[in-house]
């Protein structure tokens, strides 16, 4: 259902040098990979047919398409982001899927109140934008949550989806290597001060409490695949996990060694992550992978 980008990704192994189009391609492919988890999360929400809601921080728009499907092509969806370039890509997705009548996009920064009246929406959805270090992006997650509560009608829902990164299984049979690489990648992200490493274990219920939301609820939603993998799933794991997150940079290797990965295990990792190797993991007939996202929901109460 997504328009998956086919153009070559100009990412050097282990070095993240993203143009905004690369970033959009990555997000859309990630949405595709996480589609089972996203659909499960959306299914759990109360999104009545004909309702009106907002995807806050919609990026290139992958989830807008799923939200429209969830609403059975009724109602109206607003999408907002602070990147005009990503919104232009989202607009193109919306146009290509014939949703221009039901989806409207606007530019807005989480640092400012949403340009929408009080009590004007039935629901708000936001995925992988709010973080415990939101101030680095110019907002406080609690303040954003309060403003989301302001624009939702009493009885309506606010939903936060967090695509958990550390809890994934991408290297079945190689638990120690995977744990070491995931921890090393996280240390690497933190050193480079990149935010998305923190989309996990967020205090999302604390933000919701601060916004006086009621009936708070947490659930986990899974994306799982087993051999034979669809080429798009191989592409996602190879490019964005094996090459980008667990990529073979000297920094990552040093971190991995520092936390106990041996040189022999590092060589095994190089072998199983190389598409040219006879031992390549992603095309083995016993391969599987699992990743989950966390959905938090809260309800706006009267007064
Ligand atoms: C990881 S992407 C998630 C995109 C989309 N929600 C999804 O699930 O595919 C994070 C998005 O947050 C947007 N963003 C980052 N900081 C923001 C801010 N201060 N205000 C509004 N949007 C912001 C980015 O432009 C990007 O589109």
Query: If you compute it from the alpha carbons, what radius of gyration comes out, rounded to the nearest whole angstrom?
Result: 20 Å
- Distinct small molecules: S-adenosylmethionine
Terminal Cα span: 40 Å
Given helix and strand content, the structural type is: alpha/beta
**Net shape:** globular
In the CATH hierarchy, what is the architecture at level 2? Answer: 3-Layer(aba) Sandwich
Total number of strands: 7
Classified by CATH, the class is: Alpha Beta
H and E string: HHEHEHEEHEHHEHHHE
Low-confidence stretches: 1-16
Major sheet: size, sense and barrel closure?
A: 7 strands, mixed
Instruction: Please tell me the overall pLDDT.
Output: 90
Any idea how many domains?
1
Describe it for me?
With 303 residues, the chain is an alpha/beta fold. The chain has one domain: Rossmann fold (3-Layer(aba) Sandwich), CATH 3.40.50. It has 10 helices and 7 strands. It has helices spanning 20-33, 35-44, 62-70, 84-96, 141-151, 175-192, 204-210, 231-245, 250-258, 263-272, and strands at residues 52-56, 76-81, 103-107, 121-127, 152-163, 214-226, 288-299. It has a 7-stranded mixed sheet with strand order 3-2-1-4-5-7-6. Strand 2 (76-81), helix 4 and strand 3 (103-107) form a beta-alpha-beta unit. It is globular and about 60 Å long. It starts with 19 loop residues before the first helix and ends with a strand. Mean pLDDT is 90; it is low at 1-16. S-adenosylmethionine binds at residues 27, 31, 57-59, 62-63, 81-83, 86, 109-111, 127-129, 137-139. Residues 27, 31, 57-59, 62-63, 81-83, 86, 109-111, 127-129, 137-139 line the site of S-adenosylmethionine.
């Amino acid at each position: 259902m997504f328009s998956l980008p086919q153009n070559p990704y100009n990412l050097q192994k282990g070095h993240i040098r993203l143009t905004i189009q690369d970033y959009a391609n990555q997000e859309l492919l990630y949405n595709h990979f996480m589609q089972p988890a996203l659909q499960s999360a959306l299914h759990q929400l109360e999104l009545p047919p004909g309702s009106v809601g907002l995807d806050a921080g919609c990026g290139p728009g992958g989830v807008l398409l799923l939200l429209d499907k969830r609403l059975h092509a009724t109602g109206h969806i607003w999408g907002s982001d602070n990147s005009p370039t990503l919104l232009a890509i989202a607009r193109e997705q919306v146009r290509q899927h014939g949703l221009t009548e039901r989806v409207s996009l606007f530019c807005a920064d989480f640092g400012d109140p949403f340009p929408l009246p009080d009590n004007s929406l039935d629901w708000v959805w936001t995925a992988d934008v709010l973080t415990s270090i939101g101030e680095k992006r110019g907002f406080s997650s609690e303040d954003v949550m309060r403003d989301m509560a302001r624009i939702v009608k009493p009885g309506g829902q606010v939903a936060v989806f967090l695509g958990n990164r550390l809890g994934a299984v991408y290297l079945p049979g190689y638990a120690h290597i995977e744990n070491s690489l995931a921890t090393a990648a996280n240390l690497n992200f933190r050193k480079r001060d990149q935010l998305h490493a923190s989309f996990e274990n967020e205090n999302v219920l604390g933000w919701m409490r601060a916004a006086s939301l009621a009936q708070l609820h947490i659930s986990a939603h899974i994306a799982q695949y087993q051999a034979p993998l669809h080429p798009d799933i191989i592409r996602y794991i190879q490019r964005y996990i094996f090459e980008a997150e667990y990529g073979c940079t000297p920094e990552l290797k040093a971190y991995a060694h520092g936390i106990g990965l041996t040189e022999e295990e590092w060589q095994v990792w190089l072998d199983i992550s190389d598409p040219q190797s006879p031992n390549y993991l992603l095309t083995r007939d016993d391969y599987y992978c699992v990743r989950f996202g966390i959905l938090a929901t809260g309800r706006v109460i009267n007064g």
